[in-house]
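Worked Example 4.2. Consider the chain below.
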Amino acid sequence: MADNPNSSGSAHSAGAPPPRWLVKAMTRTHVFLHGLSGGRLFNKLAGREVCFVTMKGAKSGQALTIPLMYVPYQKGVLLVASLGGAPKNPAWYGNLVKHPEIEVNHRGQRMRLRARLATPDEKPALWPICDRHYPPYAAYRKRTTRDIPIFVCEPSA
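Applying the procedure from the previous section yields the following structure tokens:
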């Protein structure tokens, strides 16, 4: 899960992101229950819509599906690798860098997209769009010293 706010919509308690093992367990459970419901349930996280992104693992090369918050953008989506402002990128970041061809599924609509990192010139225009969609992104940027990546995911040719 890209961002892991608690049920109140605020960042994880004590300002620290949850441990990776917990994120991994929650992700597997979320994907399983979403699939079990035929895609009718578990389409939200912290009150925000999520999409299910199928990608190849950077190390394994195996297909995996994870729920991520997303920002609708042009004919695709933006994916923000914030991990709640943690000092490290989320695990899925490396997957998209190595294998940018992804499938995004949202409420039964499937899109084949190619992910690319937003350039430093693009990011000043993209952050306001992301912040309007999910305001905690602004706090995440203040919480961390790393430059939070934004993936621009556009239709594959």
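The first strand starts at residue 44 and ends at 45. The chain has one domain: 13-155. Compare this with Example 4.1 before moving on.
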